[in-house]
Amino acid sequence: MRRPAAAVLCAALLAGCAGAAGERSGPADGRAQDPARAVSESRHLPPVVDHVPTRDPVVFLTYDDGAERDPRFVGLVRERRLPVSMFLTDSVVGPGYGHFARLRAVGASIQNHTLDHPALRGLPYAGQRAEICGQQHKLRSRFGIRPRLFRPPYGTYDTTTLRAAADCGITAVVLWRASLDAGGELTYTRGEPGLRAGDIVSVPSGETGSLTLTERTERLLREIAKRGLRVGRLEDHLARESGRRAAGN
């Protein structure tokens, strides 16, 4: 999974921008990296975030891959007006893009999670660019959009990833501080356990378990409400933070 620090929001964040939730394979899960150290000092590379500094009582719900297409989830997003972010992998979504078009129609945002879900760290620039830009093209052809947020599979990345992402039009690389497991329990990549304002949460997709995606999300929403928080739109808060920082420079 992923693990950045809020301090990593150094460069101007969003000017335009694309979970993974539930990814358990691979040796790294984002905890082995400190995004604050991993990001090049170049101001042209996108920042890496797992938490957004904000005074608003919000957290951000992100979903990866596109493996689980629970039809009840569309209704939940519509009824609760949830501004969730869906990070899609083309080879996983397959013929299921229609489901995500319905989610987008009720308020979900569609973001980039590569074409084929490889672990990117260590791969050559050309390969990483092909994975990221290739999915940009796919999503543009499917939805007429150019995502600005990107989540690297397994939360692993290197400076080459950030270079390729920037060249594909990405303005922020999104990891996560909290993740929901198949049983509906939250785990944390860093810091003290417990949701706090600004946390990016990864919700697993396609994991086997007794709870559906809708049921896991409903359980998470109860925990969010218990802590006096609500769900915010990630893109809006990243853009606001970018503007605040730019104004301070």
TrEMBL record:
Ranges where the NodB homology domain occurs: 57-232
Pfam families for the chain: Polysacc_deac_1
Segments crossing the lipid bilayer: none
InterPro entries: Glyco_hydro/deAcase_b/a-brl, NODB_dom, Polysacc_deacetylase_ArnD
This protein's UniProt keywords: Signal
GO MF annotations in UniProt: hydrolase activity, acting on carbon-nitrogen (but not peptide) bonds
GO biological process: carbohydrate metabolic process
Signal peptide bounds: 1-20
Region (Disordered) residue spans: 22-48
Alphabetized PANTHER family for the sequence: GLYCOSYL TRANSFERASE-RELATED, SECRETED PROTEIN
Name of the protein in its database record: NodB homology domain-containing protein
